[in-house]
Amino acid sequence: MRSFLTSVCGVRTAARIHRLLEQNEMAEMELLRLCSDADLAEIGIRKGPRIKILHALSVLKPEAAGLRPYAYARGCCGI
Q1: 45-52: long-range contacts (C-beta < 8 A, 24 or more apart)?
Q2: What are the tens digits of pLDDT across the range 7-50?
Q3: pLDDT tens track for 44-78
Q4: Which of 51, 29, 30 is nearest to 40 (CA)?
Q5: How far apart are CA 45 and CA 64, in angstroms?
Q6: For 28, which DSSP code?
Q7: Do the beta carbons of residue 9 and residue 56 sit within 8 Å?
Q8: In the prediction, which pLDDT does 79 show?
Q9: Using CA atoms, how far apart are residues 14 and 45, in angstroms rounded to an integer?
Q10: Separation CA 28–CA 46 (nearest Å)
């Protein structure tokens, strides 16, 4: 998660965003992939980083993020 945020937003911004995600129990790649722009705005992430994060997530393959590709077809948490 931290390396993804750092590569997208830079070290300082990534640290701030990671703190916000942790405070809201969202510091997992699987959860971040499910977030909308409104979700990220609600927890205090500024517009510029939100755009960068959402774009990077849209082109990131699940395998590259260490996620199981079939988890999304089956729904959250394998349900």
Answers
A1: 45/17, 45/20, 49/8, 49/9, 49/13, 49/17, 52/8, 52/9
A2: 999 999 999 999 999 999 999 998 999 999 999 999 999 999 99
A3: 999 999 999 999 999 987 666 555 555 555 555 55
A4: 51
A5: 24
A6: S
A7: no
A8: 46
A9: 10
A10: 19
**CA nearest to 49, candidates 78, 14, 22, 15:** 14
The span from the CA of 34 to the CA of 72, in Å, is 9
What's the one-letter identity of residue 79?
I
Amino acid letter for position 32: L
Q: Which tokens belong to 26?
A: 């969202």
Contacts of 71 by beta carbon, 8 Å cutoff, 6+ apart: 30, 62, 78
